[in-house]
Amino acid sequence: MENFTFYSPTFFAFGKDTENEAGAYVKRFGGSKVLIHYGGNSAKRSGLLDRVKKSLENEGLEYVELGGVKPNPRSGLVYEGIDLCKKEGVDFILAVGGGSTIDSSKAIAAGVVYDGDFWDFYSGKYIEKALPIGTILTISAAGSEGSPDSVITKEEGMFKRGASGNAIRPKFSILNPALTQTLPPYQTAAGITDIMAHLYERYLTNSKEVEVTDRLIEALLLTMKYEGPRVIEDPDNYEARANIMWAGMMAHNHSCGVGRSQDWNSHNIEHELSALYDCAHGAGLAVTMPAVFKYVMNHDIMRFAKVAVRVWGCEMDFDHPERTALEGIEAFRNFLISIGMPKNFEELGAKKEDIPKLVNVLCRGDGRDGTISGFVTLNEEDCTKIYEMMV
Amino acid sequence: MENFTFYSPTFFAFGKDTENEAGAYVKRFGGSKVLIHYGGNSAKRSGLLDRVKKSLENEGLEYVELGGVKPNPRSGLVYEGIDLCKKEGVDFILAVGGGSTIDSSKAIAAGVVYDGDFWDFYSGKYIEKALPIGTILTISAAGSEGSPDSVITKEEGMFKRGASGNAIRPKFSILNPALTQTLPPYQTAAGITDIMAHLYERYLTNSKEVEVTDRLIEALLLTMKYEGPRVIEDPDNYEARANIMWAGMMAHNHSCGVGRSQDWNSHNIEHELSALYDCAHGAGLAVTMPAVFKYVMNHDIMRFAKVAVRVWGCEMDFDHPERTALEGIEAFRNFLISIGMPKNFEELGAKKEDIPKLVNVLCRGDGRDGTISGFVTLNEEDCTKIYEMMV
C-alpha cells in the first residue's frame, strides 16, 4: 500500500424529507446569500425547488437562482454564474441536481474567488480557495456530492476536463433517495454505470498488497449488482435507491481508493464521446469499459480473474485464468445491457468515421503528449483500436 | 435503511514516516501549546516520542507531557490531565498511543473546556465542545482515531462507560503501520479482535434492506480474516499491518454502520470483564462474542447464516440454516483462538464466582434498569447465562 492522505469532511444528511433541512444547513455552514444552481425543469415541476426556497426563507436567507445546467455542463454557464455571484454578493452555492449541476456549482465557487480565468483549474491548477458549497442530490451517479472533483466541457474545442481541490468538497450534501424516484429508467441505469465505473477505475491498479481497498470496492460492486436490477424493475423501490445512493457516495469519496494507483482511462476515453455526441456519461462508459478492459486485461490477468470470481460469481479456471478474466468482463457487459445501457457506437449515437477526430482530441487535445496514462499507458494507436472495438 | 447523518471530518495521513509531520499538522489545525499524552515506556524506548517532540519543535510549538495512560484508561489520569492543561494554557491535545491514550485525550479535551465534572459526559451528556485533538496511532484496534467516541473507567465503582460527540473527533490522525510492528503478538491479536467486534456489532442489526453496509462490513471482516494470520505469522509484515490499520479506521468511523440499528451488547458485556480483571479489551471480546452470538442467534438465523457463508466460506445448509449460522460462529471462534486469543474465563483470568457481581454492575450499575439493549434486549438472567457460557 502506498502512503496517502485522506480527508472527507462533508456532512451528509441522508433519508426521507431531508431536503427540508437545506436552509438550516446553509446557515450552519456559514451562508447568508445563496445561489441556487439547478438544471432543467424537473426540479421545478416536482416542487423540489419550491421546498428548497421555503427552507431557505424559513431561515431568513436571501437567494438568487441560476438554472439551465445541462448534462456534460458547459463553461458558458459557469462564466454566467461567476458574474451573477459577484454582482449579487453571493457567499454560498447550493446545487440542486445531479453531478452536472454540482460540478458546475464547484466551478462557479472556485471562479468567484479567483482573479484569473476559472478554466485554469481545468488545465491542471489545484483549487485552493472557493465559496462554500452545499448539494441536494437528485441522481446517484457522479459521486460529486462527496468528492473534491469537477468536470466541465469547454465550448471552444469541446474539451471535457477535470479539476480538483479540497476547497470544492461540499460542506454538506443532502441525500434523499426518494428524489431519484422520478428519474427515467435510462438515467437511473446510466447513474448505476457511472458508479460502477468509479469502482472499476480504482480497482484497476498497479499497486500491490491492497486487500482492504480491493474488498471495499468489491463490496460496492456487489451492492450495485444486487440493487441495480431491483431499481430498474421497480423505480419506486426506495430501499434499493437508498443502498445505491450511499454506494455512489462511498464509491467516489475515495475511502475505497486510498493508497493505490488508479486507472481512469475509461473515463478519459468516454469523455470525448459525451463531449462530441452529448450522450449520457454513464451510457458512454457502458460502451467504453468492456472494450478498454478487454484491451488491457493481459496486463494483469489475475486482477481481472479476481473481480470475475468475487463479484460476478464466475468459477475460477485455474488452468486458463484468462478465460475467467474474460468471463467477468462479459458478465459485466451483459449486466449493463440488461439494465438498458447501449452496447456499441450505433446504440450510443457515435460514428465510426469520427474515430480519428476522437483520438486526436483525446491524445493531443489541450496540450496532451499523444498518450493517456493509467493502469496501462495508451497511445494513439491503442486508443484507435479501443474505439474500433466499440463499433 | 433508516435516515441518518454522517460526518467524518478527520484528516488522515497514512504511511511510512508520517509521524514526522505531526508538528505541521498541529499547526495547520490551530494548536500552539500542546499536551503530548501517552502511555508507558514503549513510545519513549522506541524513540517515537523524541521524533514527535522534534517535529513540534521544528514548527516552534511549545508542549507539556503527561504519560502513564494504562489499558482501560482511568478517570484519575483524566482529572490530572485537565488540571495540567488549565494550568499550562494548553490549546491542543496530541495523543501518542492506542485507543486508551486517544480516549483519555478525548476525555481531557472535553473536560478542559467544561465547568462541571467531565464524568457527566460518560453518564450520557453529549459532548458539544472540546479542545482540538490530534493522534499518532500505535496500535490498530479501537478505531478511536476516526471516531467521536471515548471509553473511560471510573475508579470509584469501576464503571467502564462511553461518551460521544463530534467535538472529540480528532482533527488529524497519523497512521503509520510501521509503528505497530513492535507490538507483542498478543496485543496485535487483541487489536484484530477489537476491529472485528466493531464490525460484528454493526452487522447485528434489526434494520431491513441494508445491503450496502452489510457488504462493506463483510469486506472489512474478509480483510481481517486474510491479513490477521499474516501479521501474526510475520510481525514485520508492513503490508498486512497497513491493510489492518485502514480496516480498523473504516470499521469504526461509522461509514459502514450508517442507517441501521446496531448491537454493542458484546462490548457492554465485555466492558465489565476488562474493568474488573484489567484484561485486554480485545481478549475479553474474543471470549464474549461467540457466547453472545450463540445465545442470540435464533433472533435472526439468516443474518448469522449470511455472514457464515459470505465471510467464513461456510456452505449454506438450505434445509437447516441454523447449522450454517452456528458453523459461522464456530469458524469465527476458531479464528480468534488461532491468532492467540483466549477461549474461556480461565484463559482470560476471570472467575466463575464473580458472575453475580459482573451481572449486577452490567445491568444495574450507574443507573441502568436491569437490562441492556441492542440486537436483542438482555436481562440479568440472560447475561448470567451468557457469562456462564464463557466459563
Structural write-up:
Chain A is an alpha/beta fold. Chain A folds into two domains: 11-179, Rossmann fold (3-Layer(aba) Sandwich); 185-390, Dehydroquinate synthase-like, alpha domain (Up-down Bundle), CATH 1.20.1090.10. In chain A, 48% of the residues lie in helices and 14% in strands. In chain A, the strands form three sheets. In chain A, strands 1-8-5-4-2-3 form a six-stranded parallel sheet, sandwiched between helices. A two-stranded antiparallel sheet of chain A has the order 6-7. Chain A has a two-stranded antiparallel sheet with strand order 9-10.
Task: Give me the count of strands of chain A.
Answer: 10
What portion of residues of chain A is helical? Answer: 40-55%
Q: CATH top level of the largest domain in chain A?
A: Mainly Alpha
- Overall pLDDT level of chain A: 96
Q: From the structure provided, what is the oligomeric state, counting identical versus distinct chains?
A: homodimer
Largest interface: A-B, 43 and 43 residues
Beta percentage of chain A is: 5-15%
- The helix count of chain A comes to 15
Architecture of the largest domain in chain A, CATH level 2? Up-down Bundle
SSE run of chain A: EHEHHEHEHEEEEHHHHHHHHHEEH
Strand order of the largest sheet of chain A: 1-8-5-4-2-3
What is CATH's topology name of the largest domain in chain A? Answer: Dehydroquinate synthase-like, alpha domain
Give the name of the CATH superfamily of the largest domain in chain A.
Answer: Dehydroquinate synthase-like - alpha domain
Gross morphology of chain A is: globular
Which residue ranges of chain A are poorly predicted, with pLDDT under 50 across at least 5 consecutive positions?
Answer: none
